[in-house]
Amino acid sequence: MSMNPGNGREDISVDWVQRQLKAVGAVEPPASLRDRLVADIPASGGGRRTVRGLQVWPGWVRWVGAAAAVVVTASVIAWLGIPSGRQGRPIADMNGASARVYAADHNSLRPSDTNLCDINSVR
Amino acid sequence: MRDRSERRILTALRQGRREAYVGVIDAHYPSVYRFLLFLGGDRHLAEDLTQEVFASAWKSLDGFRGDSSIRTWLHRIAYHAFLDVQRRRERDTALTGALGGRDCGVADDPLAGIVAEESVSQVARALHDLDLEERTLLLLHYVDGLSYREMAQTLGRPDGTLKWITSRAMERLRGRLAGKVEP
Q1: Nearest to A41 by CA among B96, B107, B139, B24
Q2: A52 and B15: CB-CB below 8 Å?
Q3: Which residues of chain B have a CB within 8 Å of the CB of A52?
């Protein structure tokens, strides 16, 4: 504490003022205020919310959704048969001409294919 | 965003977890309330505004990027909510004055009964007599313990400027208390 020559009054230390300000900070809010704030928690405080317009689902829902998407995709691929043996593969042709064997499709035989399986053919 | 725990809290809030909301309320509502109480010197206004601050925070949760701490974010909302009320009051006062009426918005001693201890009460009154900017800075720095960097994030002004104004505000507060209190 020192005397201020300007106004003739005792100066108050910064430390003392800071302590008083800290004491000001000890004021407690009324308990009812907390109840009001908790009551004001939005209803989505127990459900899902959005982030920038996108739905945010709980973690378990997202995992189940991802698994379901994988299963559906795999099923669609299996159903379409991609890849399958229907496309045929080139083989060596005894006649020196390229030909395809349609192993699964017996109706797609072409004349040039017959030399592979028809031993009675006479050329 | 300060640390991982705050990031987790923010994620939990965005997922709508109730316990996260309650946790944020419990951690921050006393300081938000005190800030508003000594900013405006009105208990009822402080309570209503605290409620408004949290309601507004929940609404703007998606827009909060986490660049500052949750505490700083809430104080920023509180400060702007108070400024809005202040502007409304000034408009109402001007209107009341123009109509030749009496301004009923301000109590004679708004801080009466808030602080029991006499010296603390004197400091609270002297604080209330400072201008809004100085009062805000002293409250944020000395009462709520925000750093100058956090204050800069709250008020959107350079921290060097705020440091200087806070120091000047402290001198003014000391000047107002001189001769009124006995340390």
Answers
A1: B24
A2: no
A3: 62
CB of B162 within 8 Å of any CB in chain A? no
Q: How far apart are CA A12 and CA B176, in angstroms?
A: 10
**Hey, is A10 helix, strand or coil?**
strand
- Token output for A50: 């959005």
Interface A-B, measured as beta-carbon pairs within 8 A, has a size of 119
Which residues, other chains included, contact B12 with Cβ-Cβ below 8 Å and sequence gap of 6+? Answer: B19, B20
Residue written as token pair 């508003």: B36
CB atoms inside a 10 Å sphere around CB B154: 27
Contact A40 B142 (CB under 8 A): no
- Look up residue B59 and give its two tokens: 């609404």
At residue B27, does pLDDT exceed 60? yes
Collapsed DSSP state (helix, strand, coil) of residue A123: coil
Confidence band of B2 (pLDDT split at 50, 70, 90): low
Measured distance CA(A88)–CA(A101) in Å, rounded: 6
Q: pLDDT value at position B146?
A: 92
A51/B62 touch (CB, cutoff 8 Å), yes or no: yes
Q: What is the pLDDT of residue A52?
A: 46
SS3 of B45, please?
Answer: helix
Q: What are phi and psi of B42, to 5 degrees?
A: -140, 115
pLDDT beneath 50, residues of chain A: 1, 5, 46-48, 51-54, 99
B84 vs A: CB within 8 A: no
CB atoms within 10 A of CB B120: 21
Give which of B8, B11, B28, B58 to mutate to test A binding, by max A Cβ within 10 Å: B58
Q: Facing residues of A49 across strands?
A: A56
